[in-house]
């Protein structure tokens, strides 16, 4: 039985004026941010895990970083974004938030960031950047997560494209979808992680490090 959109929407948590402004900005400027039901679910799992330090790959305009910081009042968040314009907006929005002191924005390509310059460990890593690079992101940043830590990966549905026959996927997105499928097969067989897929928002993969 499928749940109605109205019923699902009834679980969405209220947001403050700044968050609503950011949601409007993202819609008007075509900036991808996490779906409301998805970020609420992620935050609830994060509350259970209660990580002290979170690394986010893919800041966009800072929406999910602010949401995570609000949900976890004792957390510190480092977030990486390569798009200079998005970094500019993210820093402005974060500066206006009540959690600005706990969020650090690093401008740069996540695949080129010097890992040694970051904290030696993070309790959680949230990956929400270039979908075709998920395995590379995972391989680069998972060593920073200790045993018992968690990596969260958003957009596993890829707006429904990941569930299509490859012939139905637009040609320009086929390489990305193939990479996403390859990453899925790889992580599900990885001996160091217990992974589970949650059909929430645009699809959330949760990987617990053994």
UniProtKB/TrEMBL annotation:
Entry-linked Pfam families: Methyltransf_3 (PF01596)
BP term (GO), one: tRNA methylation
UniProt keyword annotations, A-Z: Magnesium, Metal-binding, Methyltransferase, S-adenosyl-L-methionine, Transferase, tRNA processing
Residues at which S-adenosyl-L-methionine binds: 34, 64, 81, 109-110, 128
Listed EC numbers: 2.1.1.-
GO terms for MF: magnesium ion binding; O-methyltransferase activity; S-adenosylmethionine-dependent methyltransferase activity; tRNA (uridine) methyltransferase activity
CDD domains membership: AdoMet_MTases
Recorded catalytic activity of this chain's protein: 5-hydroxyuridine(34) in tRNA + S-adenosyl-L-methionine = 5-methoxyuridine(34) in tRNA + S-adenosyl-L-homocysteine + H(+)
Stored InterPro entries: Cation-dep_OMT (IPR050362), SAM-dependent_MTases_sf (IPR029063), SAM_O-MeTrfase (IPR002935), TrmR_methyltr (IPR043675)
Annotated Mg(2+) binding sites: 128, 154-155
Family: Belongs to the class I-like SAM-binding methyltransferase superfamily. Cation-dependent O-methyltransferase family.
SUBUNIT field: Homodimer.
Primary role: Catalyzes the methylation of 5-hydroxyuridine (ho5U) to form 5-methoxyuridine (mo5U) at position 34 in tRNAs.
The protein's name in its UniProt record: tRNA 5-hydroxyuridine methyltransferase
Native species: Metasolibacillus meyeri
């Amino acid at each position: 039985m499928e749940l109605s959109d109205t019923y699902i929407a009834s679980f969405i948590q209220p947001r403050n004026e700044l968050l609503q402004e950011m949601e409007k900005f993202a819609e008007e400027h075509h900036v991808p941010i996490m779906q409301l039901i998805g970020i609420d679910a992620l935050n609830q799992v994060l509350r259970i895990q209660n990580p002290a330090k979170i690394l986010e790959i893919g800041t966009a305009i800072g929406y999910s970083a602010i949401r995570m910081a609000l949900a976890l009042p004792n957390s510190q968040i480092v977030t990486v974004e390569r798009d200079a314009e998005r970094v500019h907006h993210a820093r402005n929005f974060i500066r206006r938030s009540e959690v600005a002191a706990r969020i650090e924005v690093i401008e740069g390509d996540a695949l080129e960031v010097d890992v040694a310059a970051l904290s030696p460990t993070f309790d959680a890593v949230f990956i929400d950047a270039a979908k075709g690079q998920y395995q590379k992101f995972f391989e680069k940043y998972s060593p920073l997560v200790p045993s018992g830590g968690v990596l969260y990966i958003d957009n596993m549905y890829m707006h429904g494209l990941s569930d299509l026959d490859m012939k139905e996927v637009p040609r320009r997105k086929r390489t990305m979808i193939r990479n996403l499928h390859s990453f899925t097969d790889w992580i599900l067989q990885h001996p160091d992680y217990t992974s589970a897929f949650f059909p929430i928002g645009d699809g959330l993969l949760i990987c617990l490090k053994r």
